Amino acid sequence: MGEASNKERVTVTFSAEAHERLRAVTEGRPYHETRLGRVLLGDSAEILRRTIPDGSLDLIVTSPPYGLVRKKTYGNEDADDYCAWFRPFAMEFKRSLKDTGSLVVDIGGAWKKGLPTRSLYHFKLLLMLVEDFGFHLAQEFYWWNPSRLPTPAEWVTVRRIRVKDAIDCVWWLAPTPWPKASNRRVLQPYSDAMLSLLRNGYKPMLRPSGHDISDKFGINNGASIPPNLIAIANTESNSYYLRYCKEKGLKQHPARFPADLPEYFIRMLTDPGDLVMDPFAGSCVTGEVAERLSRRWVCVDNVEEYLEGAMGRFEPGLGRERTPASRDPSDASNYYRAARPGLLWNGGTDPPLDADGGRRRLRGSAPSTSPVSRT
Question: Is 106 tagged catalytic?
């Protein structure tokens, strides 16, 4: 995958002095401590304010509680009040990040209560971070979860007036326009079409779109630059974390993001030895990944029962276990298929659309128990 990827496999050994610097950054008694990181129990805005010096973090990567209209067991915030709730965190994020650092926020959308229309809270959050706190939007990403269920059921499977919500927005922001980053860390295998082009050659030409494709396009660089669509199925069902929680009788965090999501940005935006923080850590997926990649890290959450389960990620022999997956680019199981839209279009035989836009439930439709639920 290239020279930069090989550097990622370097093991970093920290001196006692370096580890003491980490302690100094997160003064106070940790809930748990590893060779490279600390788990802290408490309010992350307060912990940031009292213990994290200005300009000390290289990366904040997190998935905060989403702004939903229905309360979840993990304590999500109301969509209408979300920006006001987030402001104290945003202030501390901006202060504690280095000029070369990044803030990565995975945030899902929400539906308005009882209506088949969407809340704009996550876009308002982005605007607030840029316009009120001076962050720069480095790039927007979209996490596509191919395994997500067709929800909300009332609009998607009962009335059939919307399609399933399978995307999370991932905002990559930075204090300056120039955070350190390298897409060489997250390259993907060439497609079959690109491999064919490399074998057979490519004639440089000016495309109808105006793009001038030079002869450098035909150079084999070993891998391709990925798009800003990240495809990861969130299908964890028998991981070491889940087994640990089950064996110990502990509560599993119900809204975990897959390890590949924080790993993508930790690899692209930090070097070994850099300091990574997740202020809404939940089951500490970010800490586990950072430890494995030789980054220093801090994870904070205010729910102790979730941190109890997170300890399983750092048990000897457990924290190194990965979800079984082949690293062979030719293995079809490493890819997700997305059908072209027209494969099942059926000509002009469709019945007419409901004039009321689906407002009236069709006779015989099963009622939904959760018209505005979100996975």
Answer: yes
User: In the CATH hierarchy, which fold is given to the domain comprising 3-186+227-320?
Assistant: Rossmann fold (3.40.50)
64 is catalytic: yes
Give per-10-residue mean pLDDT for the chain (375 aa): 37 53 59 92 92 95 75 52 93 98 95 92 96 98 93 93 95 98 91 69 67 64 86 79 86 85 97 97 93 95 89 72 61 83 80 91 58 33
Of 330, 326, 263, 253, the residue nearest 295 (C-alpha): 263
CA 259 – CA 243 distance, rounded (Å)? 16
- Active site includes 15? no
Which one from 58, 106, 165, 278 is the annotated catalytic residue? 106
In the sheet where 57-62 sits, what is the strand order?
Answer: 32-33, 37-41, 296-301, 275-278, 57-62, 97-108, 167-174, 136-144, 229-231
- Alpha-carbon Rg of the chain, whole angstroms? 23
Residue ranges per structural domain of the chain: 3-186+227-320, 189-222
